[in-house]
């Protein structure tokens, strides 16, 4: 089977147009039409991961985090990103990332965290509004400038034709007018269509409940154990039982208001800065367990999703812990 068959399946679960505008999910390195020899699953594409893929004779690495977030101007190996891309190309290893699009689906990263924590009655913490796809045609010479003007408003997919590029811009309904105004200013025609999804099925974070309320300190100890965290950084305990829990894999500080608004007792996430902890303001307990620690079960999620569909190629979970953070106890 070809690489593209597996990628098409993954994108039927977590479509690329569900990723955030800053993201770079998708096939980053490699030819999707190559025959698939084996797959290595990981959180981060590092040099050690590419070496492991070569050793295991895998020509596809599926990672949660994209190795490239923005354009690279040189390839001389001066940093790990360039070295990873160079090593992958040299050894014919494709790299595919499934990042915020997997975060934003109902049965994605946050559902896996919820399962590990034993949450029930789960639902999306911050559902996306209706998504709109706006499609336009533009001359190749004007395509890059237009993409720059649209950057940060929505997700842009580009299809190159012989003389023109087709741009498909996916935005939340409330921002579609920004895209239309830019296209009108450039004298471009366009058409729009709504991306229909079930209400509440797409969005950020998740909220659910414990089967029974437990003391805060007991819950935090459970989080540390079940998520295999080295430590838990948290705000002051509020001396009330924990029943409703909000979660977000990775950096979830932007969801604090939603967690408080929906009555969560604790918000489990990562990447909180010192001053941001004050925003709990006695309304909720923030529990920061580390970025890697919130997301490392994504590797297990990838494995489960792929194994339920395919059994005709070698599939490996990495043996490497790619967490760049170390703890001194």
Q: Explain this structure to me?
A:
The protein contains eleven helices and 15 strands. Helix 2 links the parallel strand 2 and strand 3. The model has no long low-confidence stretch (mean pLDDT 93). It is an alpha/beta fold and 329 residues long. The longest helix is centred in the N-terminal third of the chain and has 11 residues. It is globular, with a radius of gyration of 21 Å. 38% of the residues are buried. The strands form three sheets. A six-stranded mixed sheet has the order 5-10-12-13-14-11. Strands 1-4-3-2-15 form a five-stranded mixed sheet, sandwiched between helices. The termini are far apart. It has three domains: 117 residues, Udp-n-acetylmuramoylalanyl-d-glutamate--2,6- Diaminopimelate Ligase, Chain: A, domain 1 (3-Layer(aba) Sandwich); 108 residues, NIF3 (NGG1p interacting factor 3)-like (Udp-n-acetylmuramoylalanyl-d-glutamate--2,6- Diaminopimelate Ligase, Chain: A, domain 1); 65 residues, Alpha-Beta Plaits (2-Layer Sandwich).
């Amino acid at each position: 089977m070809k690489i593209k068959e597996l990628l098409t399946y993954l994108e039927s679960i977590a479509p690329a147009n569900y990723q955030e505008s800053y993201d770079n999910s998708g096939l980053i390195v490699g030819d999707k039409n190559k025959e698939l020899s084996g797959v290595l699953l990981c959180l981060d594409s590092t040099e050690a991961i590419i070496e492991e893929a070569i050793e295991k004779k895998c020509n596809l690495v599926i990672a949660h985090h994209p190795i490239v977030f923005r354009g690279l101007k040189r390839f001389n190996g001066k940093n790990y990103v360039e070295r990873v891309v160079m090593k992958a190309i040299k050894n014919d290893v494709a790299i595919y990332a499934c990042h915020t699009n997997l975060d934003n689906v109902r049965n994605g990263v946050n559902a896996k965290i919820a399962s590990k924590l034993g949450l029930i009655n789960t639902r999306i913490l911050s559902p996306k509004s209706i998504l709109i796809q706006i499609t336009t045609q533009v001359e190749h010479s004007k395509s890059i400038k237009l993409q720059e003007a649209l950057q940060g408003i929505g997700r842009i997919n580009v299809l190159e034709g012989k003389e023109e590029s087709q741009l498909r811009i996916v935005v939340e309904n409330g921002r579609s007018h920004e895209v239309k105004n830019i296209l009108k200013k450039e004298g471009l025609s366009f058409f729009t269509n709504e991306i229909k999804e079930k209400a509440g099925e797409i969005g950020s974070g998740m909220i659910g409940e414990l089967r029974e309320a437990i003391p805060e300190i007991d819950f935090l100890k459970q989080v540390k154990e079940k998520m295999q965290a080295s430590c838990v950084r948290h705000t002051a305990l509020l001396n009330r039982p924990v029943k409703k829990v909000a979660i977000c894999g990775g950096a979830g500080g932007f969801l604090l208001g939603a967690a408080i608004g929906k009555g969560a007792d604790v918000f489990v996430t990562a990447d909180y800065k010192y001053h941001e902890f004050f925003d709990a303001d006695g309304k909720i307990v923030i529990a920061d367990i580390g970025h890697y620690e919130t997301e490392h079960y994504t590797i297990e999620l990838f494995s489960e999703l792929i194994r339920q569909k395919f059994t005709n190629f070698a599939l490996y979970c990495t043996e490497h812990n790619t967490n760049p953070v170390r703890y001194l106890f």
